[in-house]
Write a structure and sequence with these properties.
Number of helices: 13
Pfam families: Thiolase_C, Thiolase_N
Strand content: 15-25%
Protein name: Acetyl-CoA acetyltransferase
Helix content: 25-40%
CATH class of one domain: Alpha Beta
Keywords: Acyltransferase, Transferase
Structural class: alpha/beta
Distance between the termini: 6 Å
Family: Belongs to the thiolase-like superfamily. Thiolase family.
GO molecular function: acyltransferase activity, transferring groups other than amino-acyl groups
CATH architecture of one domain: 3-Layer(aba) Sandwich
């Protein structure tokens, strides 16, 4: 197990709410997003014992910054959590990787000497703020330049997942087998108490609401493709239409918070670091395929870290759609038996802005539970991007 230096950026606390169904019937629907995030912020300072007044900044990811998630939700959650008014907060959007990017920004701030103590967090209430709610009727968020560069038009993420499945020749059975296993792994982890240390119950919800232990390949096989329409079918006639609600991540509600300090601050405060942020990168990728950025991001973070694939004990690759992880494993050669070992977003859920911090919280705990040294997390993102982060257990 590695030791940390005073200059390292180290994780000293990580918590998440249970993930709720992103529907009006979901257990967290009645919790306003700012309060959902505030809950995780309060819990991470309570667990670490850090005085909130000593927090230099709160950086929070949120994707749909509209309605209940508008007006800099990070600052509103800081105030709602009861932190001193002197504690600032800022909200970032790197699509699905927003709170993983928040972790990167927090670590970079610590390494640069700008922060001693910072919280990277994220939130999304997809039941209250639907995807796309920030795009007003008649608006053109892509601008003329993108339209001219991609005259055939870009597509929604579900179509990108279909394109990936077709390009990597992934069968419907392979996709459903992977998805059923995600539910089975998550169900086992929940039953064995592997999530207990990271969860902070809220609104009566004590466990992840979406995991279905009885999911099988046979039940998934009965689901119909989710993204087919005649127009898109005519544009991409080679697609066999394999992406269903069962091999996609579900709409979800949740929040998570990760406290990052300098090694010196951790020593001064008597905190025991869980891991150090070893290396972080971000990449851009083809915005039509959109979700394949995890492949070059993995290569880049390994090259920058000086580590090899064999050095990594655990991988977390966000399960936005099953073909994302399967194409990544094919091209990188990574071992799927060491990937998403406690299940992934297909089973647990994908509350967009919270997922980076949620996955990091789960990954840090899994690394300790399994006694590994290095872990790698990567997430595909809307617009064709990906983050990748390597942590080292301390």
């Amino acid at each position: 197990m590695a030791e940390h230096s005073d200059r390292d950026a180290v994780i000293v606390g990580a918590v998440r709410t249970p993930v709720g169904k992103g529907k009006a019937s979901g257990a967290l629907h009645d919790v306003l997003p700012a309060d959902l995030l505030a809950h995780s912020l309060r819990e991470v300072v309570t667990r670490t014992g850090v005085d909130p007044a000593d927090v230099d900044d709160v950086i929070a990811g949120a994707v749909t910054q509209a309605g209940d998630q508008a007006l800099n939700i990070a600052r509103n959650a800081v105030l709602g959590a009861g932190f001193p008014e002197s504690v600032p907060g800022t909200t970032v959007d790197r699509q699905c990787g927003s709170s993983q990017q928040a972790i990167s920004f927090a670590a970079q701030g610590v390494l640069a000497g700008a922060y001693d103590i910072v919280i990277a967090a994220g939130v999304e209430s997809m039941s209250r703020v639907p995807m796309g709610a920030a795009v007003l009727p008649g608006s053109s968020p892509f601008g003329d330049g993108v339209a001219q560069r991609y005259p055939d038009g870009l597509v929604a993420q579900g179509i990108s997942a279909e394109l990936i499945a077709a390009k990597w020749n992934l069968s419907r059975t392979e996709l459903d087998e992977f998805s059923a296993e995600s539910h089975q792994k998550a169900a086992r982890a929940a039953k064995d108490g592997l999530f207990d240390a990271e969860l902070t119950p809220i609104a009566g919800l004590t466990h992840d609401e979406i995991i279905r232990p009885d999911t099988t390949v046979e039940t998934l096989a009965g689901l119909k493709p989710a993204f087919y329409n005649e127009a898109i079918g005519a544009r991409f006639p080679h697609i066999d239409w394999r992406i269903t609600p069962g091999n996609s991540s579900p709409l979800s509600d949740g929040s998570a918070a990760v406290m990052i300090t300098s090694g010196a601050a951790a020593r001064r405060l008597g905190l025991t670091p869980l891991a150090r942020i070893h290396t972080t990168v971000a990449v851009g990728s083809d915005p039509l395929y959109m979700l394949t950025g995890v492949i070059p991001a993995t290569a880049k973070v390994l090259a920058r870290s000086g580590l090899s694939l064999d050095d990594i004990d655990l991988f977390e690759v966000n399960e936005a759609f099953a073909p994302v992880v399967l194409s990544w494993a094919h091209d990188t050669g990574a071992d799927l038996s060491r990937t998403n070992v406690n299940g992934g977003a297909i089973a647990i859920g994908h509350p967009l802005g919270a997922s980076g911090a949620r996955i990091m919280t789960t990954l840090v705990n899994a690394l300790h539970q399994r006694g590994g040294r290095y872990a790698l997390q990567t997430m595909c993102e809307g617009g064709g991007m990906a983050n990748a982060t390597i942590i080292e257990r301390l």
